[in-house]
Amino acid sequence: MKHHALEQLQIVAEVDQDYPHQIMSRNERLERWAELLELNPGRSLSTLRQTEYQQVRERAAMRCDGSPISIAFEDPVLRAAGLENDSYGEATRFFELADYQLHRVICYCHFGANVSAATAARHIRNARQVCSIVRKVGRLKPATICRITVEVAAMSDKVLLRDVYREFICAGRGC
Fold it and tell me: Which residues contact 96 (CB under 8 A, 6 or more apart)?
């Protein structure tokens, strides 16, 4: 994929910067991304190296061709909804993901040099599910929270359970 400056594009095409962005909820954006990845579930996608060790500014600028983020950026629907580029920082902003959630989707330390599109899609859906559970729990009375805790504890996906706990604790402390 070639990247061009806006000025270069205006030479060959009419660019309407005032074109309204399509409004999509966070869940719709994440679901769209997962669906795009599942169009070719066996596809091997590139990962980013050591995202957790980079300074915030360097991590935000990280990108690579053929990554799960670049698949999202190739989609005209997500670009119309406001996805501006295929960098790590833009993915955290646009998809409203915490660093640890995007790290789980794209970092070399979990998968090596490549991750399958199906695996990346599963982690994206987990991130969406975790935030949905936390938002629901945050609006409930303590007795209801206890009942939900028992339901969540019965989940077979321990990674998802750990993420729900992490998000719930962070939501209370404003992390």
Answer: 26, 29, 131
